[in-house]
Design brief:
By secondary structure, the chain is of the alpha+beta class. Helix content is 33%, strand content 21%. It contains three helices and seven strands, in the order ββββαβααββ. The strands form two sheets. It has a four-stranded antiparallel sheet, with helices on one face. Strands 5-7-6 form a three-stranded antiparallel sheet. A hairpin with a 4-residue loop joins strand 2 and strand 3 (27-30). The longest helix is centred in the C-terminal third of the chain and has 15 residues, at 74-88. It is globular, with a radius of gyration of 13 Å.
Length: 108
């Protein structure tokens, strides 16, 4: 319910490789299996999938999920990225999120 005001629920699913976001149900999937994402992780996953392969600056991501410019939110972004990584690469899968030092992150 928290995320329904961020998205048009009648928009088509976003599919990229093994990943899919279903906006009608506000759910994310990897290889058809549902991902257990918290609201901020879902927002990050959405923006990463929309810009797959592009480097997204930390400030852009932080502002996108927080809705504000707040330097104190810096470490919170790291926690959300860490949790998203755990959801996207279970067991010994390759981490699909690349950290670009001094710049940001990229979903490969």
């Amino acid at each position: 319910a928290v995320l329904t005001h961020y998205f048009e629920l009648d928009q088509p699913d976003l599919v990229s490789g093994d990943y899919r976001i279903c906006y009608a149900t506000v759910r994310a999937y990897r290889r058809g299996e549902p991902l257990q994402l918290r609201p901020k992780e879902f927002l990050l996953f959405d923006i990463f999938l929309r810009h797959r392969g592009q480097i997204l600056p930390r400030e852009y991501l932080r502002n996108y999920i927080s809705g504000r410019v707040d330097p104190g939110y810096e470490r919170t972004l790291d926690v959300h990225i860490m949790r998203l990584r755990k959801n996207l690469c279970p067991r010994r899968w390759k981490d699909p999120i690349t950290t670009i030092r001094e710049c940001g992150y990229r979903l490969d």
